[in-house]
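Researcher: Please predict.
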Amino acid sequence: MTVILENFALPADRAATEPPEARGLARDDVRMLVSDNGVHTHARFRELPRFLRPGDLVVVNNSATLNAAVDAHYLGRPAVLHFAARLDDGGWVVELRDPAGVPFTAAEPKPGRRVLLAGTAVTLRRPWLPPARRLWIADPDGDVPALLARHGRPITYSYVAQRWSPEYYRTVFGREPGSAEMPSAGRPFTDNLVTDLVAAGVTLAPITLHTGVSSPETGEPPSPERYTVPEVTARLANATHATGGRVIAVGTTVTRALESATVGAEVRPASGWTDLILDADHPTRSVDALITGWHEPGASHLHLLEAVAGTDTVRDAYEAALDTGYLWHEFGDTALLFRPR
């Protein structure tokens, strides 16, 4: 099968519709395709330590997932409101969705209109990323974290028919609440696997990047996201490279944060909002390999994968995954993609 990364066909039966635990698997028992210098190896995620070396650095995202979906009504029509990001002025980036988990088409969002929630409301201010009109800046009447704690649930899409408890959307690294959707590349890690990595001489270090919502409109750029690269992580990344080790990013979120903090070849402590866009023409400077889930056709994340591993590696990995039954989305299988040597 030949994959055109921007427009390949994903069979419906490749969507992971439930957590691996519901399929009788441990979190770290999902499949992992390893692509290293043109060689593909099929493994289980718990085998990750055998593909890394003493002195490598694994950088993880310690952002924790919010219960960011709340039942709503807009112009009398049932809806779900996704809270994507808190802004510096107190507003929130939000997305109206249909209760069936598909785009909301019952009425057009417009400035000044109200979205009614449980005992409160938000007022739509303006689109967040014009000319796209999927995401809006909204001004809430009340305390959004309290609203989400009481009435929120994890964001889901149409391929996940059953509601799963928030526990299934937590990663072992999640400490800083703020992500609208789970930083899912970190989901397969377990306490035992982290111990195995440390025992094998692999170092782990955190960044924080609070994810927005996925399902962008065609041609819509990745949303700006809030991030922090702490001094200790920057120092470890630079020391790893100085001693011949490799920096492995757990997810596109970690890759975006590290590259946003990289000046020349040096990672520096940094925080703020990043709108960095990476692709094959703008390769990564601080990331040597990437642990990732499998992304949908047309997803901007595919270009970020190419920035780490190159177009040929990503295309070949996707061909192999499609040909051998890998599962997609946040409850699916994984890949470890190395930069070609």
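Model: The CA atoms of residues 184 and 330 lie 5 Å apart.
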